[in-house]
## 1
Amino acid sequence: MGARGAAAPPADIHDLDEQAFIEEVHSFDFWFQAVEGYLSGLTHGHKPDTVEAAFTELERDRLVTVLCNYCLGETAALEGASGLIAIAPNRLAKIFLSTQVADEGRHLEVFLHRLRDLGVAEAELEVERRASRSLQLFRRRLLELVAGKDWEAAIFAQNVILEALEFAVFHSHAQTADPITREVLLGVVKDERRHIGFGENELGRRLKAAPHIRSRIGQVKKELDHLVLDTLEETMRHLGIARDEPDRLGRTYLESVERLGFA
Amino acid sequence: MAAPLESPVEPDTREDGERQRFILDDTGFDEVPKKYRRFYRKWQGPGDTLAPNEVICPVCKVVIRSTRELRPGDRVYCMPCMSRLVVVRNEVGTLEARVTY
């Protein structure tokens, strides 16, 4: 951010000029100072002195399956975000996505580490074995959209659909998780806030400027919705979360697509 | 959640009437750089209430805070999720924020 980053902020942040706000929140410097606030002092996403819980074999096995799905989701997001940098339409989007790539790489690493903590020797092989088929299909389709250089559809799939799903699931899981998993998830949720916001705002601006893309995005939504909701239901089942919870979490995703005009 | 996190200090006379002013304290919200932290706080769930200078971001559910009492038409920014919002009065008469793209 250079000189402006060093300057005193206005008395009220909401008095900032709109362009100054956009430049500031998309900057690498903003990201760095933000993550420093909640990641410094952590080891693999949690406090080094947090004590491991005692799991039954069933609890451990269910958590391993859930973490395998998280790893696949984060792998998709890492591959998607890194591919999107090349087709991003402007500097701010490219720089923001570079910070998202760093976030996704960290998420994948902390979840793989958590699997190893739980005694999974070959964590990446276990992810391949256990990860949800719906999520695998979602990943494949996301990467096709990125490879096809379809910026709006890929941003919708990744930063609206996938990130909204992750945000909702991680937030909910953190409420009942063991102490270490909870700390890891809460750190990831803080990153996800930026990712969902970027996706919704970028796509909202695009739809406003070029309404004709709405029908194409609507088709992508129709194609991917059931994969997202299937993954959500499967994950909630493994977590043993109440039957009405998937509906509530699904609503979190549906609210964001509704704001974009896809009811 | 007006006290003790924040306290009104003096009215701000403007064309559209007097507004309460607030001194914002850092509430421990750590998802933005330090210089911006006092403008945001976590929603504490049922039992929490919004002060006249606060609205919830509909995108990421963080509480956005201003140094001024908020009124319909005001613009606010959610730095944690990078959203630009406008304050509106909803059908039940309370203030809420809507995203502007």
## 2
Amino acid sequence: MADDIDGAGEAADLLAMAPLMAIDALPEVDRRRVLRLLAATDDHTRDEFAAEVAAARESMAQLSDLTATPPPAGLRDTVLRHAEQDDAQGAARDGGSTGRSRWRWAAAAAAVAVVVGIGGGLVGYAVSDRPGEPGQSTSDKVFAAPDVRTVSGPVATGQASVTYSSTERAGVLVMNDVPPPEQGTVYQLWLVGPDGPRLGGVMTPNDVGTSTTAVVDDLGDATSVAFTVGDADEPERMISEPIAELPLRP
Amino acid sequence: MPGALRTRRRPPITLEIDAIENPALMPTRDTEPAELAALLERIARSDAAAYAEFYDRTGARVFGMVLRVLRDRGYSEETTQEVYLQVWREAAAYRRTEGSPIAWLIAIAHRRAVDRVRAETAATRRDLTYGARQVTALIDEVGEEVADREAAGLVRRCLGRLTERQAEAVGLAYYEGLTYSEVADRLAVALPTVKSRIRDGLKRLRGCLDGG
């Protein structure tokens, strides 16, 4: 598919990708292109595409009846406990005012947690979504690592820097004077590796202060981190080109 | 840094067919979409009891599908945990107009399973025939774990409507986690061929399921 073909051809081309999208068979680069084309296409084509995807997903969901396998008995407790802990963390982040996190982490094993910093430095605590691993240790480990490096660059009107360690495969992101995303949008942090980007975390307008700090627990094989602006209603979707990208050298 | 990426060859699994007394396997009924949707609405308001019930009613379908893709029980447990944490956090994002709750859930789970496969096995590809056999295997091997015999019979019959080539292409993509270009490489056929096999296969499956 190409971006520059005529309207009718483009619509047909786009719709032909719907079944592949529905079963996650698109390579990341094609997926991004489809999302970009979808954002630019007319409502009718977009609705038709969504209907195609939805119908295919209903079929695949019915297949899950056939493959149903009882999960290990202990998994139920783990799942319920994680939700409970998630709420507790949300309450802590929200200053104890609510029981529900305002964060809308999506995809990517919830590998990133963000806390609002004070005065530009790393503050108080970092949140890990992995129970049993003290969250603080990630940033400690990164700063103590022999191969600690820092890369920084502009994001919007502010500055972002990532201090990271290849051996720890973790990093700490600090953003200073980056304006919050507009209402209805979010900032998405992507960990870009050889297999394309994977979502590291999402920041809503409430999450971005004068100084914002995030701990990236699992950089995986990322060779850069990228920021995009996404739709708050679909925080896991990449719908724009990166507004900033910081290369991570090994 | 790529050297630090953990890779592990995933052994083939066999389906475990146990005698099951598990609420997760309760029959799929016509009322299920509405009931699960109501649970999701409660989950969006942090209702832990609704969350537990949602897990009990859907866990086997999520875990089973993820296990088919990952073929490692440990990875599958982790991925299932991630899926439900996402449900807990994003239940409010579910829209009834966009499909049934189970379709929403299985789509989330499949995406995560596929992400895991692609992150993990770029270097160590699995045995070549596994995914290709998956869809046709489902026609034969469905066992005691399926609670709703009537519905399962329908799905199985509908899978049988796919041509062997369609089933192979869909199986490689869905259960092996391959992209369509990888499927094309694997089968040594052109990209448009793979696209149309997947599209036609899914269309045929859907047409049969909808037609009952």
